[in-house]
C-alpha cells in the first residue's frame, strides 16, 4: 500500500490536488509563472517518487531472481 501511495498517490496529490492552490499564486519563479514551475517540478518529483519506490520495494526482489 505504501508503494502505491509513493508511486501514484503522492504525484497525483501534488499535481491534481494542489493545482488550484498553485494556480492562485501570482508569483514568478526564474521568470516563469509559478503554475508552470509547479507542473515542471512535478515532472522531476514524479520520477523521484518512482525511483524511490523501485529502490525501496523492487530492487531487492530483482537481484534475488536471476
Keywords:
single chain; 66 residues; mainly alpha; 3 helices; 2 strands; elongated
| Proportion of residues in helical segments | over 70%
Q: How much strand content do the residues show? A: 5-15%
Unreliable residue runs:
none
Number of domains: 1
Strand order of the largest sheet: 1-2
Give a quick account of the main beta sheet: strands, pairing sense, barrel closure.
2 strands, antiparallel
Strand elements, count: 2
Number of helices: 3
- Rounded to an integer in angstroms, the radius of gyration calculated over CA atoms is 15 Å
* Strand/helix succession: HHEEH
Structural class: mainly alpha
Q: Assign an overall shape.
A: elongated
pLDDT averaged residue by residue:
87
Distance between the termini: 26 Å
Pfam families: DUF3311
Keywords: Membrane, Transmembrane, Transmembrane helix
Protein name: DUF3311 domain-containing protein
InterPro entries: DUF3311
Structural write-up:
InterPro entries: DUF3311 (IPR021741). Keywords: Membrane, Transmembrane, Transmembrane helix. This is DUF3311 domain-containing protein. With 66 residues, this protein is mainly alpha-helical. The chain has one domain. Strands 1-2 form a two-stranded antiparallel sheet. Strand 1 and strand 2 form a beta hairpin. Helix 1 packs antiparallel against helix 3. The chain starts with a helix and ends with a helix. The mean pLDDT is 87.
Q: What's the short version?
A:
It comes from Trinickia dinghuensis. With 66 residues, the protein is mainly alpha-helical.
Present the secondary structure layout.
Elements: H1 2-17, H2 19-23, E1 28-29, E2 32-33, H3 34-64
Antiparallel strand pairs: 1-2
Helix pairs in contact: 1-3
Amino acid at each position: 500500500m505504501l508503494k502505491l501511495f509513493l508511486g501514484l498517490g503522492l504525484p497525483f496529490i501534488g499535481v491534481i490536488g494542489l493545482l488550484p492552490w498553485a494556480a492562485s499564486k501570482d508569483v514568478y519563479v526564474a521568470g516563469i509563472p509559478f503554475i508552470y514551475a509547479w507542473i515542471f517540478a512535478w515532472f522531476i518529483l514524479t520520477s523521484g517518487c518512482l525511483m524511490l519506490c523501485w529502490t525501496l520495494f523492487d530492487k531487492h526482489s530483482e537481484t534475488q531472481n536471476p
